[in-house]
Amino acid sequence: MRSMNMADSWVQTCSVFNQPKTPCRSFIGFIYKPMNFPKSKPDFLKQTKPISSFTISAIITREEEAMIDAQKDQKAQDSSSLFNFKTYMVEKANIVNEALDGSVSVKNPPMIHQAMRYSLLAGGKRVRPMLCITACELVGGHQSQAMPAACAVEMIHTMSLIHDDLPCMDNDDLRRGKPTNHKVFGEDVAVLAGDSLLAFAFEYIVTATKGVEPARVLAAVGELAKSIGTEGLVAGQVVDLSSTGKANIGLDQLEFIHIHKTAALLEASVVLGAILGGGTHEEVEKLRRFARCIGLLFQVVDDILDVTKSSEELGKTAGKDLVTDKVTYPKLLGLNKAREFADKLNEDAKQHLSEFDLTKAAPLIALADYIAHRDH
């Protein structure tokens, strides 16, 4: 019997895969009839049984399953090693940046549009748009079908950064290596720039998406809206603000914060791409589980970088979580265990892609590794 590892003990009290179901409607229902899929958990969430409870045939079956899993892992590694991620990332980032530049033009009144463009075009990794486009292509769609949605999620992400940096929130002066929006345009215009990006994101995805069934566009809009409201980003931000400086915050509350504040929009990015690309219900839900893992992974790595990198390396104020006494994974688990947790999330994220064509899934596998091992 394998011993209970670190991740087993953590997820007994808090797990991304064991979040309570909300009564909210499913937007996938707009395009699919309800389908019941068995709820699956990654290996590190499953309870093990004493070895004496297994029959010989069960042991053989388990060994065969392990061999199959190992072969899949090797194929994934082989596909990933043949895939030039740097070239792919530069290509997609350039396409996304060009699309973003064309999506928001300077018109009357000029100041608000300049403020929107200042933060939207300030650079960044463009992880969310890339996830959206890559998921679309994985299920057989073309990047043009997902590009408006990819731009929309980046607009919303930018809005969240502008608002997050405000003095009434995190009060930050630096973002993506540049002065924050309110430092350049003032707090009043910064608030309005964020509001404008949020509103325009939905207008853009509805008016600019071509070659996709209206029902799928409607489902995508519903998913995106849910990810940023009181069941998503806003919920995480509120709990984050109320938790700052408190000593009794545990892993369950920390995970709630990051599942909603960070992971929800990353999850939506992948799900939107899969929906707009024509994915089946089963494909969408497999990619949703993948995205939930990397969404939490993104924040765990962010917490680690905040205490291990400089402001120059990060392009934003380093050590801010420590100064403001925010609860983080390194603070609760220690740096080494936080890193181990990140590795486990990356491993389980990629496991959710194992039933896809691994050559086609190579970009998402590489993106998961990039999120896990990024240095800024």
From TrEMBL:
An example Gene Ontology biological process: isoprenoid biosynthetic process
Cofactor(s) for this UniProt protein: Mg(2+)
Associated pathway: Isoprenoid biosynthesis
Keyword terms, alphabetized: Isoprene biosynthesis, Magnesium, Metal-binding, Transferase
Record GO terms (molecular function): metal ion binding; transferase activity
Entries under InterPro entries matching the protein: Isoprenoid_synthase_dom_sf, Polyprenyl_synt, Polyprenyl_synt_CS, Prenyl_diphosphate_synthase
Gene3D superfamilies registered for this protein in UniProt: Farnesyl Diphosphate Synthase
PROSITE patterns: POLYPRENYL_SYNTHASE_1, POLYPRENYL_SYNTHASE_2
One of the record's GO cellular component terms: cytoplasm
Pfam family name, one: polyprenyl_synt
Alphabetized NCBIfam families for the sequence: FPPsyn (NF045485)
Family designation: Belongs to the FPP/GGPP synthase family.
Protein's recorded name: Geranylgeranyl diphosphate synthase
